[in-house]
Each structure stands twice: as C-alpha cells, then as structure tokens.
Amino acid sequence: MSMCSALLIAGSFLATTLAIASAAESPNLGRVATPEEIAPWDASIGPDGVGLPPGSGTPKQGEAIYAARCVACHGEKGAGKPNDQLVGGQGTLPGDRPPVKTVGSFWPYATTVFDYVRRAMPYDESKSLSNDEVYAVVAYILNLNGIIADNDTIDQQTLRKVKMPNRDGFVMFSRGK
Fold first, then answer.
1. Does residue 176 lie within any of the structural domains?
2. What's the CATH code of the domain at 111?
3. What's the pLDDT tens digit per position in 36-73?
4. Is the same domain home to 122 and 155?
5. Which among 60, 146, 74 has a CA at the least distance from the CA of 116?
6. Looking at residues 7-14, what average pLDDT do you find?
7. 26 falls in which pLDDT band (50, 70, 90)?
8. 152 shares a domain with 83
9. CA torsion, points 109, 110, 116, 119, in degrees to nearest 10?
C-alpha cells in the first residue's frame, strides 16, 4: 500500500469518526416520548400482576369466546397438537419422555398467560380481544386444566392469586429488586 493510499484511508476513517461523534452530540435528533405515546407499547404483565387491567371473566363466558375465536388453532377443549396444545401434560416435565408443555403443565404464572393471550391471540387478529374476553378465555383455559373451578371469576385480584402447577419450576421474577 502506498503512503498516499494509507493517508486517504486514514483521512476517510477520521472524517467518518468525526461525523459520527458530531451527530451523537447534535441537538434536535429526536425527543423523549410522552407517557401517552409509551402506554400502548408498555402493555406487558409480569408474574406479580402489576398492570393487569380492569375486567373479569368466567370459564363459561370463556368457553363461548374460545369456540368462536380459538378452537380453529387449539382444538376442542385445548387439545390441539403438537405445539398448540393448551391442556394436559401435568407430570410430563420430569422423566425420560418428552415433556408436554401446556398452560397446565408448564406455565408458571397465570398472569403471564393473560399477558400472552392479550398481546398475541387470536393469531390472525392479535390484540383484538377486549380485557373481559381475555379474562374469560384465560378462565376457561385454567378451568380446562383443573386449576380453577367452574364457578370462579377471574379478574385483577383473583388472577394474581392463582397458583399454577409449575410455579416452583422457574426462578422467581423480580422487578429490579
């Protein structure tokens, strides 16, 4: 490489570095998002249930919604196969057989089931269910797995108290503590 080429490369590198540094220090390259702009994206619900919205639902209400919006992918009573099964699998996590990972056998927190259904389901129309519909569908799925009774109502308070069968199979969630 000639001295001239080396100087051109070094000069180009220096100019690029200065341009990047200058851009990083330049004002008016954006603004802080407002709470109103952040709110639709800040929708996750952790295991502690912080952020659960108002609303409620029962397994009976959830059964009707499930039949209309969920059965095509998850099958009758959540028995879909292989990666869309929602019910069963209890006791299959330990052992030599492949585990059957369902809401009833694998998920450690009912609040994260709510979070997932609210943000991602139905698959072809995510975020289309109302909060009451999400509570009802989650109640139905929990009921099918024998976790809650037929006459239980799921809401902000009761959902966070649900003890999932695999709750102790995961490391405890902590919000920066």
1. no
2. 1.10.760.10
3. 888 777 778 888 999 999 999 999 999 999 999 999 99
4. yes
5. 74
6. 58
7. low
8. yes
9. -130
Residues 94 and 164 in one domain: yes
Asked if 60 contacts 135 with a C-beta cutoff of 8 angstroms, the reply is no
Structure tokens, 128: 């289309």
Q: Is residue 108 situated within a structural domain?
A: yes
> 3-state SS string over the chain?
CCHHHHHHHHHHHHHHHHHHHHHHHCCCCCCCCCHHHHCCCCCCCCCCCCCCCCCEECHHHHHHHHHHHCHHHHCHHHCCCCCCCCCCCCCCCCCCCCCCCCCCCCCCCHHHHHHHHHHHCCHHHCCCCCHHHHHHHHHHHHHHCCCCCCCCCEEHHHHHHCCCCCHHHCCCCCCCC
105: exposed, middle or buried (Cβ count in 10 Å: 0-12, 13-18, 19+): buried
User: 0.85 exceeded by the pTM?
Assistant: no
Cis preceding-peptide flag for 99 (omega within 30 of 0)? no
Give the total number of structural domains in the chain. 2
- Domain region containing 7: 1-30
